[in-house]
Amino acid sequence: MRAFLRHSAVATRVSKPLTTRSFSASWDKPFPSILITKDGITAQGSFAESQAKYLKPDLAAVGELDTLLAKKQLGIVAHFYMDPELQGVLSQLKWPHTLIADSLAMGEAAAVMAKNGAKAIACLGVDFMSESVRANLDSNGYHDVPVYRLSKKKIGCSLAESAEKQAYLAYLTNAAKTPNSLHVVYINTSLKSKAWAHHIIPTITCTSSNVVQTILQAAAQVPDVSIFYGPDTYMGENLEQMFQNIATLPDDQIRKIHPAHTQATIKSLLSRFDYFKEGNCVVHHMFGDKVTKRVRSDYADVYTTAHFEVPGEMFTLAMEAQNDGRGVVGSTSNILNFIKDKTAAALDAGSNERLRFILGTEVCAYSTRRVARFNYRGSCRDMCLGWHDYIDCHERPSRVGKGHVVRDHAPSGNHLPRRGRCDCHRRRQRGPGCPRRRRLFVRRGMRHVSVYEDERPGRTV
Fold first, then answer.
1. 103 and 123 together in one domain
2. Which of 206, 210, 227, 397 is the most exposed, fewest CB within 10 Å of its CB?
3. What is the pLDDT of residue 424?
4. Under the GO molecular function aspect, what terms does this record hold (predicted)?
């Protein structure tokens, strides 16, 4: 297993002599996309090509891992946002105790795997996901089933860490002074931060899939409850916007969302809803205003999707699309199901329309594979999945210094601070593919070698 993971890591690369290019010079390029038809897959853009490549993984690696997992009786739960080369192999395994899913489903699946004979679980994700897996195993009585992580080092997450800071504890302490207060905390946080929160204020955990229903149910059950959501600022802002949108609907439509609510109750809830203002995921942070304007101007006729964690501009765009029946906002699973439903409708209608989707979330190779498999079985002419978070971002250094070039901008063009840790799901701390990882082009002899700051000798993350 360790050998396979090492094999999938990105090695130091040798590049051609540098030519300075700005981010804006390449901004007009089309978004990277994958065209899926019943006959095959075509990728546009280097990033999309890397995704498509691993939809057909090395069968030798698949067979080797299958044999090893069966021998060790090891179950694997991996997050949607792991790297494509890893997801490509995992999705081809015959070993039954393997799942690629969101953080909640990972924990639940681990307990099922243990029930069905798995002797240990490997969690491919950040630390709070491993904690969730451990907690689910313990709560189901599988205390003797060990959970293995990707590294002995801390595998953090910028969003989860924001819930452990003094600013968040102060926010909760102040919230607890409000009568009938309830803290709704995002599942993407550590068990430690959840425990501290519950010590301060009554706390309930939510996911991106059930957060809306969780808040609406709490408001229906507890009279005059005051909801304090955290730590994801973007999700809190987007929830507020969604409730404002719901408050404009007729009562009969609101009851379809939740039977206990009307315009009056939603408006009342809005007056008692608050969210933390200082936490976000650095990966979703890249969906800024510039990207949103590009989607509006160049991709107005495309189905638009957005995760709850993206900034407000992108969420607003996807919300407008959802209201028109041409988009969706929600979790990764919600986005995947929306794409599958639209594809199924086109297949049932015998349509030759090219279905195009903008994915407003982190890259999910597994979702691409599932949609591709679904489309192969049908007769729809073709469909196109496009990412607006990566536009050949790894090929565009932003400035030249003495002997090296440093790229320190997110693909959206929004500047991100250089201080602090960036621990996105897809790799460990500032690993390959991370938008805040600083790429250096160092001159060695007559050539330029592309390395990353944390890969230089003597440097640790």
1. yes
2. 210
3. 36
4. 4 iron, 4 sulfur cluster binding; metal ion binding; quinolinate synthetase A activity
Whether residue 353 is contained in a domain is answered as yes
Task: Give the CATH number of the domain where residue 221 resides.
Answer: 3.40.50.10800
What's residue 65's pLDDT?
96
Give the percent of the chain with pLDDT over 70: 69
Total domains, the chain: 4
- Helix H, strand E, coil C: the string for the chain is CHHHHHHHCCCCEEECCCCCCCCHHHCCCCCCEEEEECCEEEEECHHHHHHHHCCCCCHHHHHHHHHHHHHHCEEEEEECCCCHHHHHHHCCCCCCCEEEECHHHHHHHHHHHHHCCCCEEEEECCHHHHHHHHHHHHHCCCCCCCEECCCCCCCCCHHHHHCCCHHHHHHHHHHCCCCCEEEEEECCCCHHHHHHHHHHCCEEEECCCCHHHHHHHHHHHCCCCEEEEECCHHHHHHHHHHHHHHCCCCHHHHHHHCCCCCHHHHHHHHCCEEECCCCCCCCHHHCCHHHHHHHHHHCCCCEEEEECCCCHHHHHHHHHHHHCCCEEEECHHHHHHHHHHHHHHHHHCCCCCEEEEEEECCCCHHHHHHHHHHHHCCCCCEEEEEECCCCCHHHCCCEECCCCEEECECCCCCECCCCCCCCCCCCCCCCCCCCCCCEEEEEECCEEEEEEHHHCCCCCC
What pLDDT score does 202 carry?
Answer: 96
**In terms of domains, do 168 and 267 share one?**
yes
Q: What is the pLDDT of residues 107-141, one digit of tens each?
A: 999 999 999 999 999 999 988 899 999 999 999 99
pTM: 0.67
User: Do 290 and 376 sit in the same domain of this protein?
Assistant: yes
- Residue 305 falls inside a structural domain: yes
**Residue 112: which domain range?**
73-148
Q: Give the pLDDT score at 15.
A: 38
> What torsion do the CA atoms of 67, 70, 75, 76 make, to the nearest 10 degrees?
10
**Co-location of 373 and 400 in the same domain:** no
pLDDT of residue 32: 74
Residue 4 within a domain? no
Q: How confident is the model at residue 18 (pLDDT cuts 50, 70, 90)?
A: very low
> What is the rounded average pLDDT of the residues 296-313?
81
- Percent of the chain residues past pLDDT 90, beyond the cut: 34
* Statement to judge: residues 290 and 375 lie in one domain: yes
Co-location of 200 and 288 in the same domain: no
Boundary-marking domain end, from 148, 173, 197: 148
**Last-in-domain residue among 253, 275, 297:** 275
